[in-house]
Specification:
Blueprint (H helix, E strand, L loop, with lengths): L8 H8 L1 H11 L12 H10 L12 H24 L2 H7 L3 H17 L1 H8 L5 H11 L4 H29 L7 H13 L2 H18 L2
């Protein structure tokens, strides 16, 4: 029996290949608490790297399969997340004991209110943690189904294909890059967290202002 750690991109890719990409991205794109613990960016980019071959080594994964599975997982996961939100999403969020989930839900709600449905659904795809809760929140807030489907599909395809192709391009340009997946995953984690820094700074400033005002 193969021991697979679903939170470890290299383990998932080695065991299941493109099918693992589909399943994990599906869960990460809308299954609320479960999706928070699964890789997204850190799975797609290395998968793209493994699609790039060299004169010494053939590709370990087929690019077309990874692209297709990534797109299907992202779009289908987003739709399921929306349905979860429409049918009890707020109650589920209210029962969670995870501060991370609650904060992400609040960010998702602010994003939808600030940018409008279309732009928020596309931007949110590129923000870790936020994208997992964004689709259930859209359902809970009553975003029209047709509007949601169109824009989450645009965002899901754009996000998934961009990351896979970026990994493929880099893997094809740098020899033996696939041999350094762990450091590469660490780098992707750092880069994927950058969009969260402004939000963290804003939240820290608000807490400081509340403390200074005595509330």
């Amino acid at each position: 029996m193969i021991a697979v750690n679903p939170m470890d991109s290299a383990s998932v890719l080695a065991a299941f290949g493109a099918l693992g990409v589909l399943v994990v991205i599906f869960a990460e794109s809308g299954l609320l608490v479960v999706g928070f613990f699964l890789p997204g960016d850190t799975l797609l980019f290395p998968a793209g790297v493994l699609c790039a071959g060299s004169a010494q080594q053939p590709p370990r994964l087929a690019l077309w399969q990874v692209l297709l599975c990534a797109a299907v997982g992202a779009v289908a996961g987003g739709q399921v997340g929306y349905l979860i939100g429409r049918h009890g999403g707020r109650a589920l969020l209210a029962r969670t004991s995870s501060d991370r989930v609650r904060r992400a839900a609040e960010r998702a709600e602010r994003l939808l209110a600030r940018y409008g449905y279309g732009k928020a659904l596309v931007i949110g795809r590129f923000v870790p943690l936020l994208r997992t809760v964004l689709h259930p929140m859209a359902g809970a807030l009553g975003v029209p189904a047709r509007t949601f489907t169109v824009w989450q599909t645009v965002g899901g395809v754009l996000w998934s294909q961009t990351l896979v192709l970026a990994g493929y391009t880099l893997g094809a340009s740098v020899p033996h890059l696939a041999d350094y997946l762990l450091p590469l995953v660490a780098l992707v984690i750092v880069l994927s967290l950058l969009p969260l820094l402004p939000e963290a700074h804003r939240a820290r400033r608000e807490r400081r202002e509340r403390r200074d005002s005595g509330h």
